[in-house]
Each structure stands twice: as structure tokens, then as C-alpha cells.
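User: For my dataset I need records formatted as: sequence, then C-alpha cells, nothing else. Please produce one.
Assistant:
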Amino acid sequence: MLDPAPTMMAIVKEGPTVRLARVPAPMLSAPDDVVLRVAFAGICRTDLLVADGRLPSRDPVILGHELSGVVHEAGPRAGFTVGERVTVAPLLPCGRCERCRDGHSCSAPEMLGVARHGAFAELLCVPASAVHRVPPRLPLRAAAYTEPVAAALAVLHAGIATAERGVVHGSGRIARLVHQVLVAHGFERVELRDPAGSPLPRDAFDFAVETGGGTAALAALVDAVRPGGRIVLKSRLPEPLGLDLLRIVPRELTLRAVHYGSFPAAIELLASGRLALDEILGPARPLDDFERVLAEARRSESAKLFFAVTPGLA
């Protein structure tokens, strides 16, 4: 008699429903594949957009793209061994576009938890190229925050300089993280400003980083940045933003969109102790508490919430 196929628990979005279900466990399908046992998985805006049907996704799909874990199984060409502590860069090459075929960076990478099954599950299979080792001094809950830190590091690629005066515009944990990353990299004249506070002064900043808030927030930054300055676009809102070119063009502003910085650099920054993680990282709860956790994440972005997927891994 054949052994039954292995299964696992996962949070699955199928049609309009999000549920905790027992599903087939992933298996190695290529020699460079790695199967991970997930320790912690973080909840972010993208997960909520997919769960709420505001961001198109694979159907059904296992949600989640921020994670840490340990190697459960590795293909012969993966270069990893069982038990290694790791995290994952969640944008995976599609393998089908012309750039992939020519050996360049993918023009349309597929994201875990959106186009491919993701991290809100006991096990996850990804190519070894997406897997990054975590040093022993970095707890796995903090390591599950690597993806947001790598995303925040992208602002350093926007052509801004440490001597310039800047503002990070936002009130949630993403704004606080970006501000901390800039300060950690020597930006001494960067402010963190809540959009709900007093209006920004006109022409006061060399650069501004938007972290979400829509068209009105972007319009405020157009006036706050000096002529010839830069607005760094960091958020990934699901709806289009309005751009007032009658104001932007005469002021000769540069709008620079940034996506990800280096994952190894993000891991090192997390392990360095230069980020005040206690101000950002919230509690971790089991997968079967998913309804309450997702509801809390929808209400507030003040703290990063996690699923503690595999008890005992830290």
C-alpha cells in the first residue's frame, strides 16, 4: 500500500474566501530547489490586498511573502544543507520571458503569495537563488522582517545624499522603518512627518520619500520639495495616483520609483542592532488565529504582526 501524500496546514485564498486548510505539501521539482520549514511569516499590505480581492492573484493561492525558516530538504544543486537558518527574497523569475531566456533579470517576476504559493504555510518550496542564510545572532522572528528592510534600503538608490535635507512622509511602520534606515546610513537632516500633522513647509526639502497616502499626500510633497528636488516613490498602492503635471514640470522635479535593495545588506543591518526593532515588530500568533491577526493588521499599521508557524524555531 502506498504511503499517503504529505500534507500541511496553510492559509489559502480561494475565490472570495480566505481559510485555513490542509493542502498538499510542496516537493522538490528541480535540482536547485529548496523546501523550507517556515518559522515566522510577517503580514503586510500586499497580503491584505490579495486577501481582500483588491490585488489580482493566482486562485487558489497560499498567502504570504515575508518569512524565515530552516532548510527542510534541498536538491543536489541547491548548495544548502538541512537545518540551515534562512530567509527568502520573494520575487522569483518567471523563467518564460525573453530576459529570463537571455540570462538577465526577469522583466515580470512572480511574487510569493500572489503569483506563486507563499509563506503562510508550514512548508515552502523555492529556488535556491531566492534563499539567503541568516546568521546565528539574528533571531528568526527578526529575520522574517528582511523583506521590508530590503525594500526600505531601496531608497538609497534614489540619488539622494546624506548632506541633503529630506522628509519621510507617513505615519505607519513603513515610514518609521525608512526613516531608521536613512538615519542608520548617515542621513542626519531627514525628518519623519505624519500627514495628519501640520502642513509641510514649501520648498523646504531636497528630497521626500512617500510611503503611502494617495494623491493628496503626493500633492503635498510636490510643494514641499524645492524646485529641482526629488520625490522617492516607495509605496505600492493598488489604485493609480493622480499627478499634477502643471505643478511638477515647472518645478523640474524628479520622481524616482524604487523597489528592493540588497537582501544580504538587509540581513546584516538587522543583525547589526542599528535598527530599533522593538518599535516596529509586534507579536507572533499561530496560523489558526489568522482571522483575528488579519483583522488587526487591517486596523493598524503601527506594528508588524507575524504568524509563528512552527513552534520551537527561534
